[in-house]
Each structure stands twice: as structure tokens, then as C-alpha cells.
Write a structure and sequence with these properties.
The protein is built from six helices and nine strands; from the N terminus they run βββαββββαααααββ. It is of the alpha+beta class.
Length: 204
């Protein structure tokens, strides 16, 4: 394991720095603390334009901060859109509005003795991998369904592909849903950190 979270306390100010490969995300007490850190960073590293601004996207996750309400919301609408574009037909996307829950539980999925659907027809494991990423970041509501479908990764059949497509339809239909973190109402507003990073759209 590699260390990826650092915390610094200095002169009644606090910084929490998270790193992922070459991405840095910073939560700190206020703009003054941010500017102090960015000055130190620029002395040692080349900093791109836009770094240090309030963060909007991180690893494909849209981050919306409302400091007056003390909320931070995380959604993956773009990831859901790309997933649907990759694995659903135009007609399947148009019918996604009818899918209101992740999975049908009336009949258990059968286990196939061999792989019945080739990757050239439907790349089952790629779809599962994308769904796992989304469920682990912002959509815990699909975690159980993804776990069940992942069990059939080595030997998917038509029923499993149908179930995966249905789950993708659900994610696409509910693509604006996500996770919201809220400040404890008993705490003062100053205890809500502002998150800074590179505020660029992942498609840029």
C-alpha cells in the first residue's frame, strides 16, 4: 500500500491532501490556507492553470459544493452516459425510463457450465468493471446487483447479459442520483472544508 492522505495543522489552520497517481485534492480551512499551500507547491512543482480552484470533477465524478448549506454532492452522470452509449442500443436507452430498480429478484440467475456469450457479442466483464467503479464511488444502491452479476463473469449467458443491460438502463435512468455529505447542523460553518483541485471537465 502507498500512503495517499496527508494532514497538516499549522497556526490554527488545517490541510488534508489526498493523492491519486498524479492528481491532488486538497481540503483546507479557507482560501487563505489554500493560497499558502499553492505558493509552497509552486516553489517545488509545475502547477497547471486552474489548479487550486474549487474542484468540479475528480476521476469522472462531478463534485458540487454548497458551503451555505454545508453540503458536498457527488454524482457520475457522465460515467452513466458513457456506459449506456457503450453497451445499450438507441432503443434500449429510450426504454430506460421504465426501469425503476436495479434488478429483478423473482427468479435467481442460472449458472452456466461454459461461456455462452463471447466478448465480441457483449463484453460482459467490461460492463461489470464499469458498474463496479460507479457503485464504489457514488451509487451504493447498485452494489448488491453488481455483486450478483459479477459472479457470472467467467461464464455469462443470455440471461446474464439481459440482467446487466437492465442494470445499465437503471443507472442511465437515475444518472443524476449520487451521494451527498452534509455538515452536522450542530457544528459551526467554519468546520465545513472547501475542496480544491483542477476544476476541469474530464472530457477537456
Amino acid at each position: 500500500a502507498d500512503p495517499c492522505i496527508w494532514r497538516r495543522l499549522k497556526n490554527d489552520k488545517e490541510w488534508v491532501i489526498a493523492t491519486y497517481v498524479d492528481d491532488c485534492t486538497v481540503a483546507c480551512t479557507d482560501d487563505e490556507a489554500r493560497d499558502e499551500l499553492m505558493k509552497e507547491m509552486r516553489e517545488r512543482f509545475e502547477i497547471k492553470e486552474g489548479e487550486g480552484m474549487p474542484i468540479k470533477y475528480l476521476l469522472g465524478i462531478l463534485i458540487s459544493q454548497d458551503l451555505s448549506k454545508g453540503t458536498i454532492s457527488l454524482t457520475q452522470e457522465l460515467a452513466a452516459q458513457k456506459l449506456a452509449d457503450a453497451f445499450l442500443s438507441k432503443e434500449e436507452k429510450e426504454m430506460a425510463f421504465k426501469v425503476r430498480h436495479p434488478m429483478k429478484h423473482s427468479t435467481p440467475l442460472p449458472r452456466c457450465s461454459k461461456k455462452e456469450i463471447e466478448d465480441s457479442e457483449f463484453h460482459y466483464l467490461s460492463a461489470i468493471g464499469s458498474l463496479l467503479y460507479i457503485s464504489g464511488c457514488t451509487r451504493p444502491d447498485i452494489a448488491a446487483a453488481v455483486g450478483i452479476l459479477a459472479r457470472h463473469g467467467a461464464t455469462p449467458g443470455p440471461q446474464h447479459v439481459k440482467a446487466v443491460k437492465r442494470l445499465i438502463q437503471y443507472v442511465y435512468n437515475t444518472r443524476k442520483l449520487g451521494i451527498q455529505y452534509k455538515r452536522d447542523s450542530k457544528l459551526k460553518e467554519k468546520n465545513t472544508p472547501v475542496i480544491y483541485g483542477q476544476g476541469r471537465h474530464p472530457a477537456d
